[in-house]
Amino acid sequence: MARRAGPLVGIIMGSSSDGRVMAAAAEALDGFGVAHEDQIVSAHRTPSRLAEYARHAEEAGVRVIIAGAGGAAHLPGMIASNTLIPVIGVPIAAGASGARAAAPPRLAALGGLDALLSMSEMPTGSPVACVGINKAANAALYALKILAVESPALRKRLASHRLAQHRAVVRESERMRRSGVRAHSRLRKAR
Ligand code: RP5
Protein backbone atom coordinates (compact mmCIF):
# COMPACT_ATOMS: atom_id res chain seq x y z
CA MET A 1 0.00 0.00 0.00
CA ALA A 2 1.56 3.29 -1.06
CA ARG A 3 1.81 6.14 1.45
CA ARG A 4 -0.98 8.65 0.89
CA ALA A 5 -2.33 11.79 2.43
CA GLY A 6 -5.95 10.78 3.06
CA PRO A 7 -7.18 8.91 6.12
CA LEU A 8 -7.05 5.10 5.92
CA VAL A 9 -9.32 4.69 8.93
CA GLY A 10 -12.50 6.54 9.78
CA ILE A 11 -13.22 6.77 13.49
CA ILE A 12 -16.80 7.74 14.21
CA MET A 13 -18.88 7.86 17.37
CA GLY A 14 -22.46 8.57 18.27
CA SER A 15 -21.72 11.37 20.71
CA SER A 16 -18.84 13.48 21.97
CA SER A 17 -19.39 11.64 25.28
CA ASP A 18 -17.95 8.54 23.54
CA GLY A 19 -14.72 10.43 22.89
CA ARG A 20 -12.86 9.35 25.97
CA VAL A 21 -13.28 5.67 25.06
CA MET A 22 -12.70 6.16 21.35
CA ALA A 23 -9.48 8.14 21.91
CA ALA A 24 -7.79 4.79 22.61
CA ALA A 25 -8.43 3.77 18.99
CA ALA A 26 -6.83 6.99 17.74
CA GLU A 27 -3.88 6.51 20.09
CA ALA A 28 -3.24 2.99 18.78
CA LEU A 29 -3.43 4.11 15.15
CA ASP A 30 -1.14 7.08 15.88
CA GLY A 31 1.35 4.64 17.40
CA PHE A 32 1.53 2.90 14.02
CA GLY A 33 1.56 6.14 12.02
CA VAL A 34 -1.76 5.34 10.34
CA ALA A 35 -3.83 8.36 9.31
CA HIS A 36 -7.39 8.53 10.62
CA GLU A 37 -10.23 11.00 10.53
CA ASP A 38 -12.41 11.36 13.62
CA GLN A 39 -16.04 12.53 13.52
CA ILE A 40 -19.30 12.46 15.43
CA VAL A 41 -22.13 10.84 13.49
CA SER A 42 -25.31 10.06 15.36
CA ALA A 43 -27.55 7.44 13.75
CA HIS A 44 -30.67 8.75 15.47
CA ARG A 45 -29.87 12.48 15.81
CA THR A 46 -28.32 12.97 12.38
CA PRO A 47 -29.69 10.16 10.15
CA SER A 48 -29.08 12.01 6.88
CA ARG A 49 -25.51 12.79 7.94
CA LEU A 50 -24.97 9.07 8.46
CA ALA A 51 -25.63 8.30 4.80
CA GLU A 52 -23.51 11.32 3.80
CA TYR A 53 -20.65 10.07 5.97
CA ALA A 54 -20.75 6.65 4.30
CA ARG A 55 -20.46 8.35 0.88
CA HIS A 56 -17.70 10.63 2.14
CA ALA A 57 -15.71 7.69 3.54
CA GLU A 58 -15.90 5.85 0.20
CA GLU A 59 -14.82 8.95 -1.72
CA ALA A 60 -11.97 9.68 0.72
CA GLY A 61 -10.62 6.14 0.25
CA VAL A 62 -11.14 5.09 3.85
CA ARG A 63 -10.37 1.35 4.12
CA VAL A 64 -11.83 0.56 7.55
CA ILE A 65 -14.39 2.31 9.73
CA ILE A 66 -14.31 2.06 13.52
CA ALA A 67 -17.69 3.03 14.94
CA GLY A 68 -18.29 3.47 18.66
CA ALA A 69 -21.72 3.88 20.19
CA GLY A 70 -23.59 3.23 23.39
CA GLY A 71 -27.16 2.26 24.25
CA ALA A 72 -29.16 0.80 21.35
CA ALA A 73 -25.99 1.45 19.29
CA HIS A 74 -27.30 1.23 15.74
CA LEU A 75 -24.50 3.43 14.34
CA PRO A 76 -22.11 0.63 13.20
CA GLY A 77 -24.90 -1.45 11.66
CA MET A 78 -26.43 1.49 9.83
CA ILE A 79 -23.05 2.64 8.53
CA ALA A 80 -22.31 -0.94 7.42
CA SER A 81 -25.59 -1.03 5.50
CA ASN A 82 -24.58 2.17 3.65
CA THR A 83 -21.08 1.18 2.56
CA LEU A 84 -18.90 -1.75 1.51
CA ILE A 85 -16.07 -0.55 3.75
CA PRO A 86 -15.61 -3.04 6.63
CA VAL A 87 -16.96 -1.69 9.92
CA ILE A 88 -15.67 -2.56 13.39
CA GLY A 89 -18.04 -1.67 16.19
CA VAL A 90 -16.98 -0.59 19.65
CA PRO A 91 -19.80 -1.08 22.18
CA ILE A 92 -19.62 1.70 24.73
CA ALA A 93 -20.85 1.55 28.29
CA ALA A 94 -22.79 4.75 27.63
CA GLY A 95 -22.76 7.43 30.25
CA ALA A 96 -20.17 5.61 32.33
CA SER A 97 -17.10 6.78 30.52
CA GLY A 98 -17.85 10.02 28.81
CA ALA A 99 -17.29 13.68 29.48
CA ARG A 100 -19.89 13.51 32.23
CA ALA A 101 -18.25 10.50 33.88
CA ALA A 102 -18.48 12.18 37.28
CA ALA A 103 -22.26 12.50 36.98
CA PRO A 104 -24.51 9.53 37.76
CA PRO A 105 -24.41 7.32 34.65
CA ARG A 106 -27.79 7.79 32.98
CA LEU A 107 -27.52 5.08 30.38
CA ALA A 108 -25.16 2.62 32.00
CA ALA A 109 -27.96 0.44 33.39
CA LEU A 110 -26.91 -2.46 31.16
CA GLY A 111 -23.21 -1.71 31.43
CA GLY A 112 -22.62 -1.73 27.67
CA LEU A 113 -24.24 -5.13 27.14
CA ASP A 114 -27.03 -3.35 25.24
CA ALA A 115 -24.51 -1.91 22.77
CA LEU A 116 -22.54 -5.17 22.54
CA LEU A 117 -25.64 -7.13 21.56
CA SER A 118 -26.83 -4.44 19.13
CA MET A 119 -23.57 -4.77 17.24
CA SER A 120 -22.82 -8.48 17.47
CA GLU A 121 -26.40 -9.52 16.72
CA MET A 122 -26.67 -7.63 13.43
CA PRO A 123 -29.11 -9.60 11.30
CA THR A 124 -27.59 -11.42 8.32
CA GLY A 125 -26.78 -9.12 5.40
CA SER A 126 -24.88 -6.21 6.92
CA PRO A 127 -22.18 -7.64 9.14
CA VAL A 128 -20.31 -5.63 11.75
CA ALA A 129 -17.18 -6.96 13.43
CA CYS A 130 -17.46 -6.26 17.13
CA VAL A 131 -14.88 -5.92 19.90
CA GLY A 132 -15.50 -6.03 23.64
CA ILE A 133 -17.16 -3.25 25.64
CA ASN A 134 -15.02 -0.07 25.55
CA LYS A 135 -12.22 -2.01 23.76
CA ALA A 136 -11.47 0.76 21.27
CA ALA A 137 -7.74 -0.05 21.14
CA ASN A 138 -8.56 -3.60 20.04
CA ALA A 139 -10.72 -2.21 17.25
CA ALA A 140 -7.72 -0.20 16.05
CA LEU A 141 -5.42 -3.23 16.21
CA TYR A 142 -7.92 -5.22 14.19
CA ALA A 143 -8.16 -2.39 11.66
CA LEU A 144 -4.37 -2.43 11.39
CA LYS A 145 -4.45 -6.16 10.66
CA ILE A 146 -6.93 -5.55 7.85
CA LEU A 147 -4.72 -2.80 6.42
CA ALA A 148 -1.64 -5.01 6.79
CA VAL A 149 -3.05 -7.46 4.24
CA GLU A 150 -2.00 -4.92 1.61
CA SER A 151 0.96 -3.37 3.41
CA PRO A 152 4.15 -5.33 4.10
CA ALA A 153 5.52 -2.34 6.07
CA LEU A 154 2.55 -2.34 8.41
CA ARG A 155 2.75 -6.12 8.72
CA LYS A 156 6.34 -5.71 9.91
CA ARG A 157 5.33 -3.11 12.50
CA LEU A 158 2.55 -5.36 13.78
CA ALA A 159 5.01 -8.25 14.08
CA SER A 160 7.36 -6.03 16.16
CA HIS A 161 4.43 -4.97 18.32
CA ARG A 162 3.57 -8.61 18.97
CA LEU A 163 7.19 -9.38 19.83
CA ALA A 164 7.29 -6.38 22.20
CA GLN A 165 4.18 -7.69 23.97
CA HIS A 166 5.78 -11.11 24.29
CA ARG A 167 8.99 -9.66 25.74
CA ALA A 168 7.08 -7.48 28.21
CA VAL A 169 5.22 -10.51 29.59
CA VAL A 170 8.43 -12.54 29.90
CA ARG A 171 10.14 -9.63 31.75
CA GLU A 172 7.17 -9.29 34.10
CA SER A 173 7.11 -13.04 34.70
CA GLU A 174 10.80 -13.01 35.58
CA ARG A 175 10.18 -10.24 38.12
CA MET A 176 7.30 -12.28 39.59
CA ARG A 177 9.38 -15.45 39.72
CA ARG A 178 11.99 -13.60 41.80
CA SER A 179 9.63 -11.83 44.20
CA GLY A 180 6.59 -14.15 44.34
CA VAL A 181 3.12 -13.13 43.31
CA ARG A 182 2.15 -11.37 46.56
CA ALA A 183 5.08 -8.96 46.61
CA HIS A 184 4.80 -8.53 42.85
CA SER A 185 1.18 -7.40 43.00
CA ARG A 186 1.95 -5.03 45.88
CA LEU A 187 4.70 -3.48 43.75
CA ARG A 188 2.34 -3.24 40.77
CA LYS A 189 -0.24 -1.39 42.87
CA ALA A 190 2.42 1.02 44.11
CA ARG A 191 3.60 1.76 40.53
C1 RP5 B 1 -25.40 7.09 21.89
O1 RP5 B 1 -25.97 7.47 23.07
C2 RP5 B 1 -23.99 7.59 21.94
O2 RP5 B 1 -23.16 6.72 21.21
C3 RP5 B 1 -23.65 7.64 23.39
O3 RP5 B 1 -22.89 6.51 23.79
C4 RP5 B 1 -24.99 7.59 24.08
C5 RP5 B 1 -25.22 8.78 24.96
O4 RP5 B 1 -25.09 9.95 24.20
P1 RP5 B 1 -25.10 11.39 24.91
O5 RP5 B 1 -26.45 11.51 25.56
O6 RP5 B 1 -23.99 11.37 25.93
O7 RP5 B 1 -24.87 12.38 23.83
O8 RP5 B 1 -26.05 7.64 20.80
Helix and strand sequence: EHEHEHEHEHHH
Q: How much helical structure, as a percent, in the residues?
A: 40-55%
Structural class: alpha/beta
Biggest β-sheet strands, sense, barrel? 5 strands, parallel
List unreliable stretches of 5+ residues. 97-101
Would you give an account of this structure?
With 191 residues, the chain is an alpha/beta fold. 48% of the residues lie in helices and 13% in strands. The chain has a 5-stranded parallel β-sheet. The longest helix has 28 residues, at 152-179. It binds 5-O-phosphono-beta-D-ribofuranose (RP5).
Task: Please render the helix and strand layout as text.
Elements: E1 9-13, H1 19-31, E2 36-40, H2 47-60, E3 64-70, H3 75-80, E4 87-92, H4 113-120, E5 129-130, H5 136-148, H6 152-179, H7 181-190
Parallel strand pairs: 1-2, 1-3, 3-4, 4-5
Helix pairs in contact: 1-5, 5-6, 6-7
Residues 13-15, 17-18, 42, 69-71, 92, 94, 98, 107 line the site of 5-O-phosphono-beta-D-ribofuranose.
How would you summarize this macromolecular structure in one to three sentences?
With 191 residues, the chain is an alpha/beta fold. The protein is 48% helix and 13% strand. The longest helix is centred in the last third of the chain and has 28 residues, at 152-179.
